[in-house]
Structure formats: C-alpha cells, structure tokens
Design goal:
The protein is of the alpha/beta class. Helix content is about 50%, strand content about 15%. The chain folds into two domains: about 240 residues, Alpha-Beta Complex (Spore Coat Polysaccharide Biosynthesis Protein SpsA, Chain A); about 70 residues.
C-alpha cells in the first residue's frame, strides 16, 4: 500500500496551524481506514522562517502524533515556491505520493481522496483546480484570469485556475528534483514533467484564519517571474516593436523629403520632441528587459543553494 505525504508550506501561520493539522489528520485517518493509503502516511509542515509561533506549534503537533505529523524548519525565509520545493524534495524519499496544500485551508481537503483515487487509476500528477472564483473580489478575479491568459499567450504551459494544490507520484517528484534552476515557478515547471495527468475540481473557501501571505505585490512578482522564467516572447515583442518603429521612421523620412521638395516645410518641434521621448522610452524598456534576462542568467550560474534546512522532525529522529 502506498505511503502518502502531505506537504504544507507555512509562513506565520500560528492562527490556522492547529486547525490545518486537525483537518489533515482527519483526511489521513479516513484514507487509512478505507485502506487507500498505508498507515504510516504523514503530514509534513515546512516552516519558512516564520516570525511567530508557527514552529513551536509544529513541534507541539509532532509531539501529539509523532508518527503522523512531521516538520521541516528552514534556516531562513526563502519564499513560497522555495519552501514548497524543500518540502517536496525532503518528502520524496519518505513516501510514494505527495500532496501539496497551503495551510490556510482555502483548498478543499476533502478532494484529496479523489486525488488519491486518480493516482491509483494511473495518474502521476493530479491538479486541484478551482471551479469558480466567487470568493474573490472583482479585482483579484480579473487579475487572476488575466494572468492565466497572459501566460498562455506567452507560450507558458499552465493549468487554468490551478495554484499549488496538487498530487505528485514519487517518480514525478524525483523528475522535478532534477530541475535545478533558481528562478522557480512550480505552476509552469510541473506541467513540463509529463506523465499521465488529471484534474479534480473544487470550490475554494474563505481563509480559515489569519491573513493572506500573497498580497498584490507578491502576486505580480510571481506572475512576472513565471513569464520571464519560461518565455522569451517579451524580447521578441520588443524586437517586433523596434522593427515597426523603424518602418514608421522610414515613412516619416519619405514624407519629410516630399515636403522639402514641394516647399511645404514647417517647423515641427513638438513632433520631434514627442518622437525623441517615445523612442527613448522604447529603448529604456528594451534595455531593461534584456537586463532582466541577463540578471536571471547571473542568478542561475552562481549555483547557490535554494534553501538550507535547519531542523527536521520525523519518525526517526528529532533533529537531523
């Protein structure tokens, strides 16, 4: 029977962590009772350098059920995509199936059983996909939908309305661990793995407690990182814009020559100033865009570790 590991990234989640532990324990116990997973399946909370009592609560939950609740404590705050990666790579040698889910309980834990069923049906990756965005504000709904459409337009393969709630088989996580890049965007990386996939659909809930760890600034940063990490289309678009402007410049030159030879020359300092500012802006955008890609190359070639694990709580030892 397959061992399931539920990986839960945590950052300042003291308000919701006990509720999340209870809910996920209930899911495991139910699946074990139904003999869909082995009785040594576990939850792994991964602490991303929280400044509150998150780690103390993880230790408390581990002491309460040491064979079912484990913990990873990272040495510092590295961000959601890195902490989730740390949890998956740590868990891959301990289980046959992993399910990643955020601690806020907005994703429906009840569909984890359906994910496991689809895994037993032969799927290596099962995506949790939202049915609708009725709980979002109009602004968040519009920006999120625009994000997925923009990603598809840029040639980045993503699953519409899917975040990071997914099941992955052991071999899928092992293949994912071979992706060594520093600029992480899991929603674009996981579809590249391949293998047979499926989706489960659910209604997303309101956050159980605490506040969102993904404000607009972080959401925009994630979106821009996803586009620049998986697509060179922005550079192609700037090139196309440059060619278009060159064509306009040639047409403007022809018009200027015709005006000169026909004696209809007029002083047009306004048009000249506008042209200079416009072309200068395009040049700055192009330079900045190319610089962004060069910066990403710079980050990749240094080969720095993406995270450091300070402490691990599992069923073998209290500290590794």
């Amino acid at each position: 029977m397959d061992r399931l590991g539920i990986v839960v990234p945590c950052y300042n989640e003291e308000a919701v962590l006990e509720m999340a532990a209870d809910a996920l324990r209930g899911v495991l116990q139910d699946l074990i009772k139904k003999e869909k997973i082995s009785d040594d399946s576990f939850i792994m909370f991964v602490n991303d350098g929280s400044r509150d009592k998150t780690w103390e609560l993880i230790e408390k939950e581990h002491e309460k059920t040491p064979g079912m609740v484990f913990g990873d404590k990272l040495a510092g705050n590295v961000g959601h995509q890195y902490v989730l990666t740390a949890g998956l790579i740590t868990a891959k040698d301990m289980c046959d199936i992993t399910v990643s889910i955020d601690a806020d309980l907005q994703d429906d834990v009840a569909v984890i059983e359906e994910m496991v069923d689809k895994y037993h049906a032969g799927n290596d990756i099962v995506y949790g996909v939202r049915k609708a965005r009725t709980t979002d504000t109009f602004f968040k709904r519009a920006t999120a939908q625009g994000f997925y459409k923009l990603m598809n337009a840029m040639g980045v393969k993503t699953i519409y309305n899917h975040a990071d709630f997914r099941l992955m088989s052991k071999r899928a996580v092992e293949n994912f661990s071979e992706y060594k890049e520093v600029n992480l965007f899991l929603r674009g990386m996981v579809p590249l793995i391949g293998y047979q996939t499926d989706c489960v659909y659910y209604d997303r809930k309101e956050r159980a407690a605490g506040e969102s760890k993904y404000p607009l600034k972080k959401m925009l940063a994630l979106a821009f990182n996803g586009i620049s990490s998986f697509s060179v289309k922005p550079i192609s678009m700037v090139l196309g814009l440059g060619i278009f402007i060159c064509v306009l410049a040639v047409l403007a030159g022809i018009y200027a020559l015709i005006s000169y030879f026909t004696g209809h020359v007029e002083a047009g300092w306004t048009s000249v100033i506008i042209s200079i500012w416009f072309l200068g802006g395009i040049q700055l955008i192009a330079i900045g865009l190319v610089g962004l890609y060069i910066g990403k190359i710079y980050m990749e070639v240094k080969h720095r570790p993406r995270y450091n694990i300070e402490k691990v709580l599992d069923d073998k030892s209290e500290s590794l």
